[in-house]
Each structure stands twice: as C-alpha cells, then as structure tokens.
Amino acid sequence: MNGVKYYRIQKGLTQRELTQAAQIGIPTLRLLEEEKRHDCSAGLYRKIRNVLHVSIDELLRDDLPEIEDTIPPHQMYPIWRECPDNCIAVYRHAKRLTLRKLAGQMYISYETLRLACKEPEPPERYVQWLADMEHMSVEELLHCYGEKAS
User: Fold this and answer.
1) Number of structural domains in the chain
2) Is the predicted pLDDT of residue 148 greater than 70, yes or no?
3) Is residue 84 a contact partner of residue 119, using CB atoms and an 8 Å limit?
4) Tally of CB atoms within 10 A around 140
5) Which of 77, 108, 112, 130 has the maximal Cβ count within 10 Å?
6) Containing domain of residue 84, as a range?
7) Distance between CA atoms of 82 and 71, rounded to whole angstroms?
8) Could you write out the three-class secondary structure of the chain?
9) 104: Cβ–Cβ under 8 A, 6 or more apart, which residues?
C-alpha cells in the first residue's frame, strides 16, 4: 500500500475529508492512492502532508502494509463522548477499534463499555484485562495509554 492511502486510513479520514482539508480533487487523490504517482507536483504532496502530518518521503513510500478502510470515521472517533484521559478510550483509538468490537473482545456489553469510557478512571478489572491482553503490567498500560497524546 502506498503512503498516501496508508496514512489517510491511519488518521481515520475518508477520501472526501482529506480532499476537502487539503483542497485537492477526489480524482487526484484516487490516482495518488491507486497508482505510484511520484511525478505529481511537490505542492500537491505538501498539501497532503500538512493534513496528515507525515513527511513527503512517507507519502511516497509504496511498501507499507495493507490495512482495511472499512470502519466509518463516525464509528471510530466519537472521542467527544468519551473522557480524553480514560486509558480504555485512548487504547481503543490507538488500536482503531470501535466500541462494539472492543466490547466484544472484553465480553461486556456495548453500553457498559460506553459508560466506562466516559469516566475519568475506568473500572480496574477492565484496565487489568487490557493489560493482560497486551502482555504488560497495569503500570505499563497506563503509561502507554493513560494520556490522550498517544
């Protein structure tokens, strides 16, 4: 997968959202994502770089792993409904999991997880479960996912 498509998906943007933010056309973006278009102007790549916050060298790569572009952004990033310091919410976003998917992995209901992500401090048993799943201590998990910055 090439860098333009890879980093767009990593940032949770649709093609339309990226083209609007970068002020480029959708056909242009589709060409960039589906072909090795290294002959485009540097200005075009600068516009995309400014939105995705990655280097032009990364955008020009064509050896990045394939990732799925199937989760609608409105399902992926309802962060305004979650506590930004909640380690479960930060973990969910870092791992690109929907609430429903993570709730299924944790064997709890969607509503239970949604409410847990609203709290500044989630239930300890959920934090412990995530730490065990990631093969790390609770302290390491909190260090990695305890801040919104990750």
Assistant:
1) 2
2) no
3) no
4) 12
5) 130
6) 73-145
7) 18
8) CCHHHHHHHHCCCCHHHHHHHHCCCHHHHHHHHHCCCCCCCHHHHHHHHHHHCCCHHHHHCCCCCCCCCCCCHHHHCCHHHCCCCCHHHHHHHHCCCCHHHHHHHHCCCHHHHHHHHHCCCCCHHHHHHHHHHCCCCHHHHHHHHCCCCC
9) none
Q: How far is CA 40 from CA 66, 104, 122, in A?
A: 23, 44, 48
The predicted structure's pLDDT at residue 139: 93
Residue 68 forms part of a structural domain: no
Say which amino acid occupies 3: G
pTM of the model: 0.48
- Tell me the pLDDT tens digit for each residue of 100-129: 888 888 888 888 998 999 888 899 999 999
